[in-house]
Amino acid sequence: MRADRVFAYGAAAGLLGDLLLGDPRRGHPVAVFGRTAAAVERVLWRDHRAWGAVHTAVCAGGALALGAAAARAVRTSPAASVALTGAATWAVVGGTSLAREARVIGQALEAGDIEGARARLPHLCGRDPQALDADGIARAVVESVAENTSDAVVGALVWGAVAGIPGLVGFRAVNTLDAMVGHKSPKYRRYGWASARLDDVAGWPGSRLTAVLAAVAGADPRGAVRAWRTDAAAHPSPNAGPVEASFAGALGVRLGGTLSYGGRVEHRPVLNGDGRAVGTQDIERAVRLSKRVGWLALGVCAAARRIVKGRTS
C-alpha cells in the first residue's frame, strides 16, 4: 500500500477514534511524554538558553526517534502501518477534549454559574479566571478553541502528511514542550526559549492552513480574510494571530484586548474590531467551526500527500 493511502486511512481512523473515544483518562501518551520531559528538566534546568536547547533536543528528538523506530518496525505490513498511524493520530490530536471542555464552560455560563465556569477555565487555557466576567470567560474560550484547533488538530495532521508517524509524534512533542516551558515566566524566559522558537517554526504551516480553512468553513469568509490581513500581524504570537483573527472574522466577533496570565496583565491588539462582543452562544459556534476545520484539514492533507507522492513516484 502506498504511503499516501496509509496516512489517509490511518489519520481518518485516528480522527474517528478521537471523535468516538476522546482522550483516555489514564495513561495518555502525551501525559507520559510530559512526565518524562519534566524529569529531564529536573536534571538539566539552568537559567540559560543553551541548557534549554539541550532539553528541547533531548525530549523532542527522543520522541521523533521513537516515532521513526515504530514506523520502521511496521513498514512491511500495510495493515500494521495503517493501525499504527491511526493510533498515533488518535494519541496526538485533541479535538474532542477541546470541544468537551469548551462546552462544559459554555453550559456553566448559560446556567448562570460563573464560579463553576471560572473553576473549569484552567482546564482549557492559562488565563486568570478570577479576573474575568462571563463575557470575558466566553472570549477566552473562543480564543482557546481557535488556537488549539491549530495546535491540537491541524498542525499534527500537516506534519503527519509530511513525515508520517514521526511527524505526528514530533509535532505533538514540540507543542507540549512549548506549553510546559515556552512561556515568559521568570523561570522559563531563557530556559524555554528554544522550545518556544521551535514551536513557532513547527506551528507555522498548520496555523496558516487553519486560518484558511476557518475562512472557507465559516459564515463570513470575507470577514475572516479581512481580519487576518489587517489584524493578525499585531498579535504577539506569529501563529495564534492568523488563527484567532480568522476565527474572529468568520464568527463575526471581536477577540483580543486586555487579559491576564499568571498575574501578568497583557494588552493585546483587538482582532476584527468591527465585530460584536463575544457572547456565551459563540462558544458552541466556535466549537462547530473547529470541528469543520479539523475534518477539512484531513482532506487537504491527505490530498496534498497523494499529489506529492504521485509526482515523485
Describe the structure.
With 313 residues, this protein is mainly α. Helices cover 72% and strands 6% of the residues. It contains 11 helices and 3 strands. Strands 2-1-3 form a 3-stranded mixed β-sheet. The radius of gyration is 19 Å and the shape is globular.
Give a quick summary of the entry.
The protein is mainly α and 313 residues long. The protein is built from eleven helices and three strands; from the N terminus they run H-H-H-H-H-H-H-H-H-H-E-E-E-H.
Top keywords for this entry?
mainly alpha, globular, 313 residues
User: How would you sum up the major sheet?
Assistant: 3 strands, mixed
Query: Mean pLDDT, rounded to whole units?
Result: 94
Order of helices and strands: HHHHHHHHHHEEEH
Distance between the termini: 13 Å
Please count the helical segments.
11
Give the strand order, joined by hyphens, for the main sheet. 2-1-3
Q: What would you call the shape?
A: globular
Strand content: 5-15%
Give the helix proportion (percent range): over 70%
By DSSP, the count of extended strands is: 3
Helix/strand structural class = mainly alpha
Low-confidence stretches: none
Radius of gyration: 19 Å
